[in-house]
Amino acid sequence: MDHELLNQLLKPKTIAVVGASSVPGKIGYTVVDNLLKSGYSGEVYPINPTATEILGLKVYPNIKDVPAYVEAAVITVPAKAVPQVIEDCGQKKVKGLIVITSGFAESGRRDLEDQIVEIAHRYGMALLGPNIVGTLSNSDKLNASFAPFLPLNGKASLVTQSGALLIAIDAATYTRNVGFDKLVSIGNMADVNIADLVTWLDDDPNTTCISLYIEGLRDGRQFIEACQHAHKPIIALKAGVSAHGAAAAASHTGSLAGAAKVYGAAFQQAGVIGASDLSNLFDRTLALSLQPPMKGDNLIIITNGGGVGVLATDAAEKFGLPLKFAPEEVQNELKKYMPEFGSAKNPIDLTGQAGNEWYYDAVRYAIAQPWVDGMVVLYCETAITNPTEIAHGIEKALKDAGIHGKPVTVSFVGGEKSVAAMSELIKVGIPAYQAPDMAVNAIVSLREYENLSHMVAESAAPCAPSNQAAAREVIARVREQQRLTLTEIEAKEIFLAYGLPITRTLLAKSENEAVELAQKIGFPVVMKIVSPDILHKSDAGGVRVNLKDTASVREAYRTILTNAKNYKAEAKIHGVAIQEMAPWGTEVILGSVNDPTFGPTMMFGLGGIFVEVLKDVTFRVAPVTRGQALRMLGEIRGAPILSGVRGESPRDREALAEVLCNYSHMILDLGDEIAESDANPVLVYEEGRGLKVADARIILKKK
Ligand code: ADP
Ligand code: MG
After folding, report:
1. Whose CA is nearest to atom 20 of ligand 1?
2. pLDDT tens by residue, 413-450
3. Which of 539, 543, 563, 611 to mutate to test the pocket of ligand 1 (most atoms within 8 A of CB)?
4. pLDDT-based confidence at residue 244 (cuts at 50, 70, 90)
5. Which bound ligand lies closest to the C-alpha atom of 537?
6. DSSP annotation of 624
7. Which atom, in ligand 1's list, is nearest to the CA of 607?
8. 456: alpha, beta or left, given left = phi > 0 and alpha = psi -120 to 50?
9. Distance from the CA of 658 to the center of ligand 1, in angstroms?
10. Ligand 1: residues within 6 Å at CB?
11. Of 31, 81, 483, 641, which is least surrounded by CB within 10 A?
12. Which of 632, 517, 645, 652 lies closest to 268 in space, CA to CA?
């Protein structure tokens, strides 16, 4: 969406409030009151057909009666009146519409919502909402909302899908001491969506961190792209991760893909830092808005108490940034700033005797050491030291050291004096937290930000040449027969068009042909039922492996057909597949779903019969880069099985990663056709020996 148009919507020079009211307590009154109280410098025009004056301002019966240019309109009239108001705004050449009114798609009136968007677009207007609280900005002294006041001033900006939460967060900014420049309620996102605001906030000089509360995205790919292009840290809390995977699914992948996993994957690919809950969103936002990214893994912790030091050490490991001992020379120098019984290993324990000077010396020295990438300073309130002085010591040390590219977070554990000291630290840009684990978690988010930025910068994997046309021919053939389920043979034709290493498979329609084809492929062979009506072939007694001679092939042919008929009398049988028998290997599963939000999405996990029991799988939105593919292999709990355990040699992860990339391009190219797919099992061999796709399944989208 056009940048200038969003400026006109979110920092307008003049504002009309359509539905303004002279009755205190009404939203139409509150919005006018808030605009005046926030110190907004532009003109405010209340619009109301009957009132003449509201809060000392002249009232106009219709926006078209305002004798001056109106850049944006806040709309609070009842839903059924909104279309006419927007029409009037259009004629008045208004640019931005802030539609507070509810009663649209969220309560079954998608039609009314579509109507207002249509009118807005006809006049080239941008529409925020409907069903929102409004928008607030400290730097513009603008409270165009019915939230009671501007948030605590700060450098983060928040976009939220929940209006009620915006009001709660607004108040909590003061009690939690986390400052925001802008709070934007985005509501139903009928027009302006989260991606638009990410891009706009990325250009906003008053925002250093973009904080998101997400219930459900509409266009997941637009969101990913907008975030990938942003230059500021973006942190998101996704609510509602439990309900999503409920939809009935025919494939393994479908039943394993839940919102938590798919959103988690999409965030990673978008370079978005996750927040585990609302508190965590606040904590991490504070650090991300005030501190630089952490460029390496070396975290140093300085403390005056062993207890908080141990808690921080535990937290560092738990959040994925385990502590290392400081180098010898750093330890030797730090020993000078502590008594004999202190510890200079890491955590650096200055002991309970440490006053502001010791903190000053240790912090100033440590932050300047090349080995140190980031620092957490802890302080336990003691009888002999003063929190305010310690805070000043830390602040001065950081200033005097003159090091700007390394993040620092702080935690003071104590009473009111500690709380007050932390407020002062936050004011000078040093994030401070009530508990050591929070300070560690916050600095970890700065490390995550750095890592994610590198991942996003990775270029897409070069992909094997593919033959999309051949794949589409197979699909067209299946569609002609009014089917959605492909047989293994058909699915493998498509896999082959994308360079996937399938086991060679041929279709036999008679016992004699079975023998002939088995000789052609070479013994031993595998034989399987080929029927679009039998999805899980083993369940139907439709798979026989390791058939070593013609007699066994003949016998298997008859048995498989009998079993299939007993299993499902009405099943349409194409014949029996004769297949190259792949040597034993580590069984993994590749799969895909067409996620409602993100579209074609890849799954990888340990395969075989336990896949649904262990649920040891991981996801990525397609396409998957080579780097992401390798990361997926490392993410599953069973990762050591691939890297080699107990004398087992490592598996061919390079080849597997390449197959993952190619598979992801297949599901992306054919995203308009394929609903779900999987390759289970894929047999993975020792390094350099590649892999084989033994089974293939594709289910088409309903059209
Ligand atoms: P389904 O999943 O429909 O029951 P599969 O084709 O996956 O059927 O076959 C069942 C099992 O038989 C596989 O999990 C695998 O262990 C084994 N298998 C299938 N095809 C081959 C093959 N070509 N080479 C070796 N083993 C195979
Ligand atoms: Mg299978």
Report:
1. 694
2. 999 999 999 999 999 999 999 999 999 999 999 999 99
3. 543
4. very low
5. 1
6. P
7. 14
8. alpha
9. 22
10. 503, 526, 528, 536-538, 543, 545, 579-582, 681, 694-695
11. 81
12. 632
Closest ligand to Cα 587: 1
What whole-number distance in Å separates Cα of residue 350 and Cα of residue 562?
Answer: 79
Residue nearest to atom 21 of ligand 1 (CA): 694
Amino acid identity at 44: V
The residues, any chain, with a CB within 8 Å of residue 25's CB and separated by 6 or more, are: none
Specify the pLDDT at position 24. 96
- Residues paired with residue 377 on neighbouring β-strands, in sequence order: 302, 410
Quick one: the chain helix, strand, coil %, rounded to 5? 40, 20, 35
pLDDT category of residue 245 using cuts at 50, 70 and 90? very low
Q: What is the pLDDT of residues 152-172, one digit of tens each?
A: 999 999 999 999 999 999 999
**Confidence (pTM):** 0.93
Among protein residues, the one with the nearest Cα to ligand 1's atom 10 is: 538
User: How many angstroms separate the alpha carbon of residue 462 from the centre of ligand 1?
Assistant: 30
- The pLDDT-based confidence of 143 (bands split at 50, 70, 90) is very high
d(CA 268, CA 237): 13
CA-nearest residue for atom 27, ligand 1, is 694
DSSP letters, 264-297, are: HHHHHHHTPEE-SSHHHHHHHHHHHHHSPPP-SS
Quote the pLDDT of residue 607.
Answer: 81
| Residue of minimum CA distance from atom 6 in ligand 1 | 695
Helix (H) or strand (E) holding 418: helix 416-427
Cβ atoms 388, 417 nearer than 8 A? yes
Q: Write down the pLDDT at residue 184.
A: 98
Q: Residue 635 belongs to what H/E stretch?
A: helix 626-635
Q: Using the atom order of ligand 1, give the atom closest to the CA of residue 535.
A: 3
- State phi, psi for 238 to the nearest 5 degrees: -100, 120
User: What pLDDT, in 10s, does the model give residues 20-40?
Assistant: 999 999 999 999 999 999 999
CA angle at 600 for the pair 595 and 604, rounded to the nearest 5°: 95
- Ligand closest to the CA atom of residue 536: 1
- Looking at the predicted structure, is the pLDDT value of residue 224 above 80? yes
Q: How far is CA 529 from CA 354, 512, 545, 565, 582, in A?
A: 76, 16, 12, 10, 18
